[in-house]
Specification:
GO molecular function, one term: ammonium channel activity
CATH architecture: Orthogonal Bundle
Structural class: mainly alpha
CATH class: Mainly Alpha
Subcellular location: Membrane
Keywords: Membrane, Transmembrane, Transmembrane helix
Distance between the termini: 64 Å
CATH topology: Ammonium transporter fold
Number of strands: 2
Largest sheet: 2 strands, antiparallel
Helix content: 55-70%
Membrane topology: Multi-pass membrane protein
Family: Belongs to the ammonia transporter channel (TC 1.A.11.2) family.
Radius of gyration: 21 Å
CATH superfamily: Ammonium transporter AmtB like domains
Length: about 450
């Protein structure tokens, strides 16, 4: 039997699994759902939330990344994230393509390793595409082609191995489904890369309307509903924790969306569709690190905070801060992912329920959440868990900021990170020779 440690991978020893067929069917379904978040979800979302002249480029960045990450993932990155330890923060590179490996059983013996490889690939792919939201409308596509494999290799694999695999922080940090590894890292890396790439064209920065809000909602819908697989598939079993995670996810998202819309109506006297999408995203991000480990009432509270605080940092603090104004973060990924990811990591350490932690893990290192430590008289243990959560935030933030900077500087020595001004003024036609809305008969003769 081929074994590999699963997410937070002392887990599932005490978990009530379904049958092998039930678990295999659910994992295949969850893998498909997570893939659909990127293709077509983020392809549509990124392609329609930008100005018309950037629709093709933005969608194509997502599609390219999805394909490139898969090839890199099976050739070396999967083992760097979940394989044998090379050092305390990285695994040993190896190919994940041999039939012996792919057809072997995962550690809980309920589904083949091939599905685990695909499931984790989908997480890696969406991380890269999420950070691309900070770079839309000006990054040189050739630079993006270099950036994707380099960032996967030097940033994503390190976070995954350190917190999910056999790394030094894995036995301590609560990260149920990627609040640190996927969401916080994409927010920090996207903002850092946006600094190095530079701003969009001056006219675009002043006027950047979505080209199709209805389709933006469609892409957002894929992201929200398919998060069922993102959080529901992370216990690697069709069980109680998976079911609770799904309920908590949708409760948190709905609450966050409503809070964001309410803030828009109170302050700006109008409800914004794009604001609702942002509130949806912050709710998804916030609940993810603790989705199956908190009670539903806690999920609602997390949604309330994730709807308000990122709204404040994006709509108020961002506009007053010279630091934020100096970086052109196209879709505000720093606020929706870095701020919300930090919130989720902290609140998961605060609300993690001991009984659910025992179902999920076979280690006493995790928790209890600070809230429950007050009730049980184990305040010291609760405070220690909060310290671990904050240590995870610091590690992911510093590592991604430093390594993303190094990657961007390296690429800039090979090819320009940013398109030239003439191309920026034209958009898709200059970058790809194609336009999103080339209507029949527009300037053409039969």
């Amino acid at each position: 039997m081929i074994t590999i440690s699963l997410r937070n991978y002392s887990l599932l020893k005490h978990l009530h699994h379904g049958t092998t067929k039930e678990t295999m069917a659910w994992q295949l379904t969850a893998t498909t759902l997570v893939g659909l978040q990127t293709v077509p979800g983020l392809v549509i979302l990124h392609g329609t939330v930008v100005k018309k002249k950037w629709a093709v480029n933005s969608a194509f960045m997502a599609l390219y990344a999805f394909a490139a990450v898969l090839i890199c993932w099976v050739l070396w990155a999967h083992h760097m994230s979940f394989g044998a330890k090379l050092c305390s923060i990285i695994g040993r590179p190896n190919v994940a393509l041999t039939p012996k490996f792919l057809l072997g059983q995962s550690i809980n013996g309920k589904f083949p390793m091939a599905d685990f490889v695909c499931f984790q690939f989908a997480f890696a792919a969406i991380t890269v595409v999420l950070l691309a939201g900070s770079l839309l409308g000006r990054m040189n596509f050739y630079a993006w082609m270099f950036f994707v494999p380099l960032w996967l290799n030097f940033c994503y694999t390190t976070g995954a191995f350190t917190i999910w695999g056999h790394g030094c922080l894995q036995p301590y940090i609560i990260d149920y489904a990627g609040g640190f590894v996927v969401l916080l890292s994409s927010g920090v890396a996207g903002f850092t890369a946006a600094y190095w790439v530079g701003p969009t064209h001056s006219h675009d920065r002043q006027n950047f309307p979505p080209n199709n809000i209805i389709h933006t909602l469609g892409g957002a819908g894929f992201l929200w509903l398919d998060w069922t697989g993102f959080n529901g598939g992370s216990p690697f079993a069709a069980n109680e924790i998976a079911a609770l995670a799904i309920v908590n996810t949708h409760l948190c998202v709905a609450t966050s969306l409503l809070v964001w819309v309410s803030m828009d109506m109170i302050v700006y006297k109008k409800s914004s569709v794009i604001g609702a999408v942002q509130g949806m995203i912050t709710g998804l991000v916030c609940i993810t690190p603790g989705a199956g480990l908190v009670s539903p009432w806690a999920a609602v509270l997390m949604g309330t905070v994730s709807g308000f605080l990122p709204w404040y940092t994006m709509m108020v603090l961002h506009r007053k801060s010279a630091f934020f104004q100096s970086v052109d973060d196209t879709l505000g990924v720093f606020h929706t992912h870095a701020v919300s990811g930090t919130l989720g990591g902290f609140l998961s350490g605060f609300f993690a329920k001991p009984a659910l932690l025992r179902l999920m893990y076979d280690s006493d290192n995790y928790g209890p959440g600070l809230f429950y430590s007050l009730e049980s008289g184990k305040l010291k243990d609760g405070l220690r868990q909060i310290e671990y959560q904050l240590a995870g935030v610091v590690f992911i933030t510093v590592w991604n900021a430093v390594m993303t900077s190094i990657i961007c500087i390296f690429i800039s020595r090979i090819v320009n990170l940013r398109m030239d001004e003439d191309a920026l003024e034209i958009g898709d036609d200059a970058a790809h020779g194609e336009e999103a809305y080339a209507l029949w008969g527009d300037g053409e003769k039969m």
